[in-house]
Design a protein that fits this description.
The complex is a heterodimer. Helices cover 34% and strands 32% of the residues of chain A. A 7-stranded mixed β-sheet of chain A has the order 10-9-8-11-12-14-13, with helices on both faces. A 4-stranded antiparallel β-sheet of chain A has the order 2-3-1-4, with helices on one face. In chain A, strand 9, helix 6 and strand 10 form a beta-alpha-beta unit. In chain A, helix 1 packs antiparallel against helix 2. Chain B is α+β, with helices and mostly antiparallel strands. Chain B folds into 2 domains: 67 residues, Ribosomal protein L11, N-terminal domain (2-Layer Sandwich), CATH 3.30.1550.10; 65 residues, Ribosomal protein L11/L12, C-terminal domain (Arc Repressor Mutant, subunit A, Orthogonal Bundle). In chain B, 37% of the residues lie in helices and 23% in strands. In chain B, the strands form 2 sheets. A 3-stranded antiparallel β-sheet of chain B has the order 1-2-3. Chain B has a two-stranded parallel sheet with strand order 4-5. In chain B, helix 3 runs antiparallel to helix 4 and helix 4 packs across helix 5. Classes of the chains: A alpha/beta, B alpha+beta. At the A-B interface, strand 2, strand 3, helix 3 and strand 12 of A face strand 1, helix 1 and helix 2 of B.
Amino acid sequence: MTTWTALTTIKGEGPAYALGERIEELPVAPTALAVLEVEDGSGMWEVGAYYTEKPDPVALDLLAAAAGAAPFAVTRLEDRDWVEQVRRELTPVEAGRFVVHGAHDAHRAPRNRIALQIEAAMAFGTGHHGTTRGCLLALDGLADRGFRAARTADIGCGTGVLGMAAAALWRGCVVATDIDPVAVETARANARVNGLAPWMRIGRANGLRADLVREAAPYGLIFANILARPLRGLAPDIARMCAPGGRAVLSGILNEQADWVEGMYRAHGFARERRIRLGEWTTLQLRRL
Amino acid sequence: MAKKIVGTLKLQVPAGKANPSPPIGPALGQRGINIMEFCKAFNAATQGIEPGAPCPTIITYYQDKSFTFVIKTPPASYLLKKAAKVQSGSKTPGRATAGTVTVKQVREIAEAKMKDLNANDIEAAMKIILGSARSMGIEVKG
């Protein structure tokens, strides 16, 4: 089937979504519409429309001009195997001794590494992001120095990748929770696929006050890959549930927020052990005093 | 997890029939979104909907290539044509009638679409559906 695309760029999220709505109101509506941030820090957004027949370039360019967007580039997309193309792009992610890969790359996982099979699907935590990779690198560094946690908590677990990495490493008890029920189901499925379910208790919870989390406390290691503001709010609970000498690995923190988060945890009895910066994201590795 | 949204994709996908052909393949594939995982999840989520019914779907995708999606109810125009048992609306609405539906059917459509409509109550939702019927040349009786 022939596909035509009309693509443009425009400054700002609001104008991009507004332009998308105008495109949908044209007499020939697109079969799909994409509004996406251009990931280069420029603040530009891409608006792309897909059609089964060649769209009217004049109508599109009038919309673009009125919105202050660049003229649309209208092109015919050649038929290709998009599934295969995506598989080629979703390459395994390496973080120290860990390799996170999709099922399509299972045969490529090196035998001398800890391989975790995670699909890029309905939960965050595929490894293709600095926050997840930062946590895995922190865990790898801890293991290098002989650190071992009998009990680990993964708060806001998404795919469950961090908890699974700890379970694969130490075969200790891991409690993994998320506020999102889809993430909880995804994490359970991932634990099964990776043969780690016997070590993991996975459930839905908001924060650390759920019975599931409290029952296994104190923890030798607590992961929380969330965002800076909720991380600050969780500081008292994480301090209470982290064993003396235990570690907290916090992520989802923009570089410029790192001091703000670290300060809160210092005030709750933690000392910084390591900062890992990957792109715009910082992972904090803290030791409970 | 620290979800950072990259953007959204809007698609109209037939219930239970998502596959990698256009527009899903190119729209998701050009952005590196896992097409087969989306198709699997979408088809599972639409099992309770009549197969083939067009479902407006909004996919939100994140920096690590994971995604979530929301499925809206099929468009009023689709539901009206189905209720009137016609293939298309009138080419000259207001002058030629393409078909007829009953007030009861309009109410049923309004109830089905209530969660996606900007309406406070069922009467307001029915007015929206009646407007759609009028613009399609579908007459409402009873």
